[in-house]
Amino acid sequence: MRYPSDRPLSLPEWLVLCIAGEQPTYGFAVAGLLTRDGRLGRIWHVSKPAIYQAVLRLERLGLVQVAGQRHTGQGPDGLLVTATQSGCMAARWWLRQPVAHGRDVQPELLLKLALLDRAGGDPRELLKEQRAEFGALAAALASRVEASTGFEHTVALWRHQAMSATMQFLDDVTKQAELAPAARPNGHRRSHQRPTPGQAQAGRRA
To answer: What percent of the chain is predicted at pLDDT more than 90?
Structure first.
C-alpha cells in the first residue's frame, strides 16, 4: 500500500486509525483502550502523547477528520476522531496483512486479532496468510537445526522451537475461529457505543 508520506504508519498510528474506523470516537476512549489495563493496552500500551501525535499525523495524511480542542492539558482526550473513507480502506487493508517476523506476533498480530474480534470480523484469512508467511521460515529453521553443531545448533534449536510454538498457536487459533461463526450471526459487526459529550467531559476529568 502506498502512503501519502515519506514513511509508513507506525503501530500506534495504525491502532488509532483502526479504532476510529470502527466508528467516530473521542480521544479519551482511544486512550482508555490503550492504557496498560485497557482491552488493547494489555497487549501493547500506548501513551496519551503518542496517541495525540498519531491523531495529528493521521489528520495530516487525510486518513481521519478531527474536531474539538487541540491544545489542552489532557492531550487527545477532547478530540472527536472520525476515519475518512480512505482511512477506513487503509485500516481494512492493514488488518489483513500478516506480520513479517516471529517477533512481531506480539504485539502486532495479537493486536490485529483483537481488533478483528472487536469488529466481529473473521480472522481465518489473516491466520491462513500468516501461516503461509511463516511456513518457509519454519522449514528453513528446521534445516538449520540439522545442519548446525555446537552453540550454533543451540541457537538454531531455540529459534526452531519458538517458531514451532508460533505455528501451533496459529493452528489453535484457527480451530477456535472455525467455531466462532455460530457466535457471529450473519457476520455482523459488534456495536461500540459512541461516547456522548457528557461522557467525554467525564473522561477528561478522570
So the answer is: 77
